[in-house]
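So, does this match?
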Amino acid sequence: MSVRLILALSFLNISCTAVFNSNEVNLSLALTKYNDFAYFAELDNPVTISSQNKLSKSKLEYTFKCFYDLTLDNSVSKTQPCSDINNLFFNSSSGDLSWSPDKAQFGDYEFKVIINATVKGEVKEEEKIFKAYIKKLPGFSLGISSKYITGDSSPRILFTDFLNMGDTVSVYKDSSCSQKIAEKSIESIQDFRDIESQISTEGHYKFYLKATTNGVSLPCIDTKLTYEFRKAKSTVKIFATDKAFAALKTDGSVVTWGDAGYGGDSSGVDLSSGVVNIFNNYHAFAALKEDGSVVTWGSDFYGGDSSSVNIDSDVIKVFGNYGAFAALKDDGSVVTWGYANNGGDSSGVDLSSNVQNIFNTDSAFAALKTDGSVVTWGSNLSGGDSSGVDLSGGVVDVIANSYVFAAIKSDGSAVTWGQDGDGGDSSGVDLSSNVVSITSTSRAFAALKADGSAVTWGRDGAGADSSGVDLSTGVQKIFSSKGAFAALKTDGSVVTWGSNTSGSDSSGVDLSSGVIEVFSTWDSFAALKSDGSAVTWGNFGYTCDSSGADLSSGIQKIFTTKYAFAALKDNGNIETWGCADYGSDSTGLDISNDVQNIFSNTYAFAALKTDGGVVTWGDPRNGGLSEGADLNLNNVKSISSNNFAFAALNKDGQAVAWGDVTRGGDSSAVDLSSGIENIFKSSYAFAALKTDGSAVTWGRSDRGGDSSGIDLSSGLQNIINGYEAFAALKADGSVVTWGSSTRGGDSSGVDLSSGVQKVFTNGYAFVALKSDGSAVTWGNASYGGDSTGVDLTSGVQKVFSNKYAFVVLKTDGSAQSWGYGAYGGDSSGVDLSSGVQKVFGSLYAFAALKTNGSVVTWGDSNFGADSSPVSSELTEDIVDIIPTSSSFFARRSDGSTVAWGKVLESLSKETLNNHMLDMVDEITYAGGVYIIRKKNSDYITLGGALNSFAADLRSGQ
């Protein structure tokens, strides 16, 4: 007679059945699946017990015993009964065994079940050894994210430490595991990763997994994951000359069509792969490739023929106007070709080195050099002739419209040249001093001055005529579209003027008060209000139609690409509108209720969710499609974005980048698989600091992506990032720098070999504080890189900065400032010779607290430099200052507060004190809203021009 012990796997239970003659005895092993765990058991052979008297009618008596050990060697010690295993229950009379392993019980178990049977008084004993493999089902992901949006139909399924060679895996989209969409037999290491999906229809799919491992068929397991499949557009962007088109595709190839003479025929150049961007003028195209080479086609006369110049390598950007091109190389040189009168001939100017940026009007170019000089060439009528203005030095920025250039100098003056009627003639306005910024439309300019006034000039229909609005005082910031301006004032109102089709007509929305920030795209505007609502206006045919978005309440912040908007709401929802190709189309994305932050670059968005997931949308080549990011983005703790790419760091120390491959989107050349502690960004590159003290960099080589010339292999304590350069402080007190030579990447002029305690930056320049009390500076001379006017040889105790200037506090209580004078670099109007206790910086101003309790301020009056309205309150008894980006709060010893600056200038002492603004612990400013945390953990919110308080935020909320 025989007893058969059979192991069968059904759904989540594994059962063993013993049969003796016709009497059934159940021996069952029940293993439950918890979350990401799967369990199974293996039985090699059946148990057999023989009896000499098969016809006996004697009663069969039997008992069971169970033992185990953790060594798979086909022998089990009898000294470890199964009852010793936590959560395991064994019935010695029936053989039933039930086990629910916990997370601490991973491993390989070997069990011995002994069956004792008494037949006609004779004891028979048989034993059977069987095995249970208790293993973790790993984090199961499809591609890079459980909410993955892929551009192809081959998501990767990642398995580790679970399957074995020879196993099979099937993936289903239904809970009964009947609708199979993928299957793979594991025959190699690569097979653990690549499972080709048969999905071809766009939509949302839940996934279920079924595997056969070690010959045992596992149950149908719900992965708890959703796969969201959307077919990527094969075309990234379409470019056009006057009569032809070129389409850049996601695979880096280009197709062209249209008039052959204008670039429709590209058969003479290789555009099959590797193209990262296309530039065009009116008659021809230029394609920049991954290797830094450029190919051109179209009208030979207007730039289609580039055989006369060397653009086979090292090109970082191409600029095109009506009939010519200019290519900027990574060594700072420029080459030009095309129609000579439009700038194709640059033989009259020196472009051999030190060019940091190029600007163009329709028919001319201007090159800004590292020494602050500017050279121009091309059509005289469009800015090619700048002989009438002084551009020999001191230029910090150049702004261009279609026919005119404007240059801002470090002394706050501005000069213009080009077509008189479009802004070249600025004699009707005062640009001799105090110019803070210049904003342009296509044919007009607006200059914001330090006193809060603004002046406009150029073509009336494009925004030069601002006579219908009041720009004499209180202007906080100016925004522009293609043909219109919008000015945000300190009282929370907005005034608009210019072309109606570009957003000058805002009569349909209420902009009289409560506006805390304005956002613009090419033809549209959006205004965020202090009550959490937003209003939009502009050209509804392009980007401004927000009728499909709920902007009535709850908006925390608005983000923009060049052609689209995204609004993050306080419930975690996102509302998008604008141009679909650049970020307005978020259809099908899971971005409701749990988004904690949005990141944007010029053409794409990325949303970080509360569960660590990431979703992206917008221009695929600039990060709108993250399919190239070979990392599970379900565990992300932070995202960094520069102008054209994104980088994500997850909680396991892994990092990945995606977006424009030439500007930080491709990190394949560096190891980001583990040990990443933090990610730092410049405008065009990234740097990752590792836990072992090493660092790796990637992105545009001349903006910090190439660190091959310095040693970053060990000993790094911190990385300090500027806008286009990096500085790394090492444990031995030395500092190494790389990136843009004009923004701090070149520190060869100062000694950073030892003794450095800390490094500071304002983005454009750096300051290194040494242990001997000296300090050295480098970077953009106008913004703090040149400190020749101040004594930093000894006694330097602390360094403070705002966006364009620095201040040092010395051990004798004196302070000195340098950098851009209008923004705090010039402190000659205040007494800092002694008694300075601490310095605080807003965006463009400083405030110094003295040991006698008084306060002095300097810099841009709109950002807190003008404290005259409360000067009598700042003569004594001030114990602390809390700065924001545009204002200052000074706290007295009794806990009361006095405030001044851009948003708070209209608040009186009584207003503040009546709302019990005392014992302030911390103040945060964002988008015109102040969040004030008091020492009792209460919160007060102050909403911009409304001056409305609400003590409705409590600790922990």
Q: What stands out?
A: The radius of gyration is 35 Å.
